[in-house]
């Protein structure tokens, strides 16, 4: 099952609960933007999506530390030189260009495959990123620059000093309904299963004929 060993190169925190971790890219490790690897931890496996760019000399991941979780605390505590066994890259949550407008919807670290798409040169998309606080808007400048529309959906209170792109105050489903009239879209949904379930119900009732791609993180 294990195909590669990844060696930690660097880790830095993006917020109190989320960090980016970089590994030395092993020879022969090739992947498509949006793919992930499984980190093998005894009998368990946890999947994480590469951020890209695919040609970089390192492999980067954006990881939320789940307190009390089995594996994410091990990544959070990892030091330079530590090694982890992973599967080969896999998965089908990749970007397929089409004449329809692409609308990407992420919650939390579900932003990872969209960062990979942007780093592979995809432009002109609409993106809704659902977070509890603006601190969770990782990669926002990069994403906002590349997209046609970038709409943070912030469900918690907005701090007085917030100076980011115009936010929607609420969940991504409500943000979608408020800002995207019925039309011809390709939806890409990534993150919490609950968000994906809610969005599928909205898409079924409001965006007839839309194409939908989903990636559930947990
Ligand atoms: C295809 C795929 C790609 C993924 N890519 C990423 C990624 O790029 N970055 C990333 O951070 N995670 C990603 N995940 C989630 C990751 O695989 C783990 O599930 C997560 O890190 C928790 O693992 P754990 O062992 O620490 O917690 P566990 O011991 O598995 O879980 C403990 C509890 O926390 C809940 N939980 C799990 N994940 C979260 C979360 N993010 N927030 C809140 N509660 C949670 C679980 O439901 C469970 O109740 C991905 C999952 C899948 C299936």
UniProtKB/TrEMBL annotation:
InterPro entries: Cbr1-like_FAD-bd_dom (IPR008333), FAD-bd_FR_type (IPR017927), Flavoprot_Pyr_Nucl_cyt_Rdtase (IPR001709), FNR_nucleotide-bd (IPR039261), MRET (IPR050415), OxRdtase_FAD/NAD-bd (IPR001433), Riboflavin_synthase-like_b-brl (IPR017938). One of its GO terms (molecular function) is oxidoreductase activity. Residues 1-96 form the FAD-binding FR-type domain. This is FAD-binding oxidoreductase. It holds the Pfam family NAD_binding_1. Transmembrane segments: none annotated.
